[in-house]
Design brief:
With 329 residues, the protein is an alpha/beta fold. The protein has ten helices and 16 strands. The strands form three sheets. Strands 3, 5, 6, 7, 8, 15 and 16 form a seven-stranded mixed sheet that branches. The protein is globular, with a radius of gyration of 20 Å. The structure holds NADP nicotinamide-adenine-dinucleotide phosphate (NAP). NADP nicotinamide-adenine-dinucleotide phosphate binds next to α1, α2 and α3.
Length: 329
């Protein structure tokens, strides 16, 4: 196979230096499945990895990108055959293993999911890690008994990738959704996704009591920090909060009161290390009962591999809205 393009991150004199390079398969970390990538996507974590604003990569040099979807070219595993349409995301990609910002990826078969009928590579990456994570969070909340009758679900970081897909999926399931956002210009976008209310975070007094007035039946949180603490104080009895992200900060200052007096559950969501069977189940949901009808409103941007570095700052400063696909060829 001839050489191919990849966005590879180096560490030089203690600095993170990303470069578009020509690689061969021999340059990639070992794996028993080779994927010809069609699409990847940009997630918050990819912006941290390629700008060096967060310590994501644990070895260098490494191809960045936590997502890839495309076609199997070769496989030493009988579960996967050349021509299969697949997605790989999370696992060690862009942490310890070369990732998805490349025309080819080579990964272990256990990281690869065949895409269910109805989901092509572009749709899969319109969802990407963000959409998969939103679906995993909702799946876990429903397992805990979350249902529309308990009240609206608050979604923080609402205009981001995870937040946008979470709103669309929850609304599709019949939940009332309150989009919690720091942006003042995104109301139409959020309502278009299915949010029934918008809660503007900026300048809001979030209170300090161990328990505040109940505002939500449950919550999907992408921010952590003071916002997550506030959610613990305002979720209804037996509601669940899916803790996904830390865009605001990693700390959580709350008390046990919401947990022992309201029976609130804090569900940790980790999309990186998900057993293959559960990953397949989540993808089946995304192709079936959870299939978003308005992904076209969310994944409106598309860049090529050589444009990724021009746009990633928007994820670091929180100014982006929705999802951005990366066309790999
Ligand atoms: N646990 C997991 O497996 C997993 C998987 C995927 C993502 N994540 C994490 O989940 C979070 C969201 O990921 P994403 O891909 O959706 O990111 P994203 O597309 O960059 O969206 C993040 C959103 O959070 C808000 N935000 C950003 N910076 C902020 C700040 N400093 N203070 C307050 N709000 C801020 C913004 O929304 P508004 O302007 O609308 O408020 C922004 O659009 C990230 O922390 C990411 O690392 C975790």
């Amino acid at each position: 196979m001839e050489s191919f393009r990849a966005l590879r991150v180096h560490q030089e004199d203690g600095k993170i230096v990303p470069r578009l390079e020509q690689l061969t398969l021999d340059d990639l970390a070992p794996g028993n499945v080779v994927i010809r990538g069609e699409y990847s996507s940009i997630n918050y974590k990819d912006a941290l990895a390629t700008t060096g604003k967060g310590r994501i990569l644990r070895r260098f040099p490494l191809v960045a990108g936590v997502d890839i979807a495309g076609t199997v070219v070769s496989s030493e595993d009988p579960r996967l055959k050349p021509g299969d349409l697949v997605a790989a995301h999370g696992c060690g990609m862009s942490e310890t293993h070369d990732g998805g910002f490349a025309e080819y990826a080579r990964v272990p078969a256990d990281w690869v999911n065949k895409l269910p009928p109805g989901i092509d590579a572009r749709t899969a990456m319109g969802l990407g890690t963000a959409g998969f994570t939103a679906a995993l969070a909702i799946h876990r909340m429903e397992q805990m008994g979350q249902e529309p009758g308990m009240g609206p679900v608050a979604v923080t970081g609402a205009t981001g990738g995870v937040g946008s897909v979470a709103i669309a999926l929850l609304a599709g399931l019949g939940f009332k959704v309150t989009a919690v956002t720091s942006k003042t210009t995104a109301d139409d976008y959020l309502k278009g996704l299915g949010a029934s209310e918008i809660f503007h975070l900026k300048g809001r007094e979030l209170g300090t009591k161990p328990l505040e007035k109940v505002l939500w039946g449950g919550a999907v949180d992408n921010l952590g920090g003071a916002t997550l603490a506030w959610l613990t104080r305002t979720v209804a009895p037996y509601g669940s909060i899916a803790s996904i992200g830390l865009a605001q900060g990693p700390e959580l200052n709350t008390t046990v009161m919401p947990f022992i007096l309201r029976g609130v559950s804090l569900l940790g969501i980790n999309s990186v290390e998900v057993p293959l069977g559960l990953r397949a189940e989540i993808w089946r949901h995304l192709a079936g009962d959870l299939k978003p009808t308005n992904l076209g409103l969310i994944a409106t941007r598309e860049v090529t591999l050589d444009q990724v570095l021009e746009v990633v700052d928007g994820w670091v400063d929180g100014s982006i809205t929705g999802r951005c696909l990366v066309r790999l060829r």
